[in-house]
Amino acid sequence: MSVNSEEFTMEKRRGLIVWVYSLRQLKNLRRFGFVHYVSRRMKYVLMYVNEENVVENMEKIERLHFVRHVDISHRPDIEMNFAEKIGTKAAFQVMEDKDDIEERNATIRLAENV
């Protein structure tokens, strides 16, 4: 047995949602990237494409006759680090005018004592 000395490198990928008129030509989409999910009822395909080829592949896919529309996933653009927000007062503050808010001392009464 020979050991392959190549290392596995992760390629950055981007999700594309491809809305189609019919799913008969689904095999044609496989040449652009990895088809992850197919919704037969709503007629869309979720696929992943390499990050450096997103714009090129998107334009090519939109030119296909069975494609209605192509949407790009914005998940990689969103910051997913919520550690600073959770548990701090800033996460629970609501931006309102302080003049409009009336502070009341609320007392909790049980139904037996009412």
Automatic annotation (TrEMBL):
<protein>
    <recommendedName>
        <fullName>UPF0298 protein OMQ_01058</fullName>
    </recommendedName>
</protein>
<dbReference type="Pfam" id="PF09902">
    <property type="entry name" value="DUF2129"/>
</dbReference>
<dbReference type="GO" id="GO:0005737">
    <property type="term" value="C:cytoplasm"/>
</dbReference>
<keyword id="KW-0963">Cytoplasm</keyword>
<dbReference type="InterPro" id="IPR016979">
    <property type="entry name" value="DUF2129"/>
</dbReference>
<comment type="similarity">
    <text>Belongs to the UPF0298 family.</text>
</comment>
